[in-house]
Specification:
It contains ten helices and nine strands. It has 238 residues and is α/β, with parallel strands linked by helices. The protein has one domain (6-234): TIM Barrel (Alpha-Beta Barrel), CATH 3.20.20.140. The longest helix has 21 residues, at 149-169. It is globular. The N and C termini lie far apart (36 Å).
Length: 238
């Protein structure tokens, strides 16, 4: 079976966007999200212009990567940027931020929910909210790649707990590279191996880098389609 693989979190801090896209083509990815830290709208506008000038067969999405001190600031940033980008990615870690992200249907991805924590940063209530609001929980490949020894053990343990909670709540889980340079990027099946390491069976693991992110991309495209009335309903042009 031929799969389309996606990487919905790549932050080109050490490369140009064009270089990231070029390498994504070599990895045979079907789509990639360029996640820009959402501190300045001008940075998002510049990234959008750069993406528009790139000639590629890959589906390129623009994401706003939002960090916030508290849920209220997070919500304000989401409201400001939701219509400017394809995906909203929340950088988690703080439990209040994690929960607020899971409660908000305008959020697409919660990244790093266990950042700087001694636990996964998630519980069954938050995971149920994420499932209800279609917020995908990210397993970040780079966080494993760049850790070592006991730290890597803790990172994997937290991500395994996320997978277990997501399985019980039927919540979406994706694996993304979190790449800052081409050296952090991985092909789709390599990304999926992280989900296997976290206890998923092979089929579900492959879905975290293919069917699940594709469903997110399709939903975003449908919402942004000017002929879309509601999910599954469109006005057909004559």
């Amino acid at each position: 079976m031929i799969r389309d693989y996606y990487d919905l979190h790549s932050s080109p801090e050490e490369e140009t966007i064009a270089k990231i896209i070029e390498f994504a083509e070599k990895l045979e990815l079907a789509g990639i999200c360029i996640a820009i830290p959402a501190e300045k709208k001008e940075d998002l506008d510049a990234a959008a212009k750069e993406i528009a000038d790139i000639d590629t067969e890959i589906d390129i999405l623009l994401g706003a990567k939002i960090s916030a001190e508290n849920p209220e600031i997070m919500r304000k940033k989401i409201e400001k940027l939701r219509d400017c980008v394809d995906l909203i990615i929340i950088v988690g870690g703080d439990v209040a931020i994690n929960r607020a992200a899971c409660e908000n249907p305008k959020v697409d991805i919660l990244s790093h929910p266990s950042s700087n924590r001694k636990d996964s940063g998630m519980d069954h209530v938050m995971m149920a909210l994420a499932a209800k609001n279609k917020v995908a929980i990210e397993l970040n490949f780079k966080s494993v790649l760049m850790s070592y020894s006991k730290i890597r053990v803790h990172v994997l343990s937290h991500q395994q707990e996320i997978v277990n909670l997501a399985n019980h709540a039927n919540a979406m889980v994706i694996v993304a590279s979190g790449a800052k340079s081409i050296w952090d990027m991985r092909a789709g099946r390599e990304l999926a191996t992280l989900a296997v390491m976290c206890g998923m069976d092979r089929e579900k693991a492959v879905n975290t880098a293919s069917d699940v992110p594709k469903s997110i991309v399709d939903r975003v495209r449908n919402i942004k389609d000017k002929n879309s009335v509601m999910p599954g309903v469109k006005v057909l042009e004559k």
